[in-house]
Automatic annotation (TrEMBL):
The name this protein goes by in its record: SsuA/THI5-like domain-containing protein
Keywords on record: Signal
Signal peptide positions (record): none
Species, as recorded: Streptomyces malaysiensis
Source superkingdom: Bacteria
PANTHER family according to UniProt: ALIPHATIC SULFONATES-BINDING PROTEIN-RELATED, TAURINE-BINDING PERIPLASMIC PROTEIN
A Pfam family hit: NMT1
Main location: periplasm
Protein family membership: Belongs to the bacterial solute-binding protein SsuA/TauA family.
Record domain SsuA/THI5-like: where: 55-223
GO CC terms: periplasmic space
Amino acid sequence: MLTLLTACSAATGSGGDATTVRVGNVCGGINPSTIATDAKTFPSGTKVKKICFDGGAEALQALIGGSIDVFIGSPEHIVSARSKDLPVRGYAALSRRVPYSLVTKADSGIRGVKDLRDKTVAVTSVGSLSDTELLKAAADADIPYKGLKVINGGVGASIVAAIDKGAAAGMVSDPQLTQLVHSGKYRVVWKPDFDYVSLVALANTSWVDKHRALMTDYLRGLTTAEDKSRADRSFAVKALAKEKFAVSPGVLDEATAQAIANTPKGLKIDGGVYRKTIDVLVQTGRIPADRVPDFADAFDFSLLKSS
């Protein structure tokens, strides 16, 4: 019988075993891994332990250090690791849209990104995906990123608290994003409108080589969750109730529908989407153009075929 550990524990795991996949997440969002974990779609005997982090930078360090086996992160973490000759690859693509939007209080007077110059802006953590989005937003608005006072805001209630306590804006993702906008007390200052592989299941290639069957079973659970969610959205909504998001049922349904729409079919992407993602990372200075790994080096979808 499937045993599933869903409690978000500290990032200092005690070590994995042959039947457990320790999965690092920036918790609080919606993606196939979260749905799979909550709906228990993994094959019998496969255990999944979800470990929460405040930001992607911390989770990547945990992956490199071996305290987690899989990290639900972004391609920039693959590029960062491989530029340091660390054998990290993406094994499934979970979203092709960046999840965070810049939110401000309804009465803040902030009308656009240009208005954030010299003001405090909260991201989940500096160096994370939300911070990359802020770099992109600043570049598109033609204002210097260094002209923003960027702080670590965490996720969930903590980043909303940062906005309420004085940050001019903060990076927020669904379902909390939809809930805040529906409340009428907050509004969106900037929303991304570009293709970007924002969430992928990353793992150390050496760990995968030693645990191919376990990784294949983990990926099988993700594809099962994807298929069931596309066939019946209520399947995903019911599973996500276990996350105890502080949102209304209608907001959760709306946010889940958007997350499913943003999920690549079969959890795979092609080189074109990867190239668009890399272009953003180079534009924002996240990675040097001469250190970009080839698509085939960055991703390995072969286990999805067998899952």
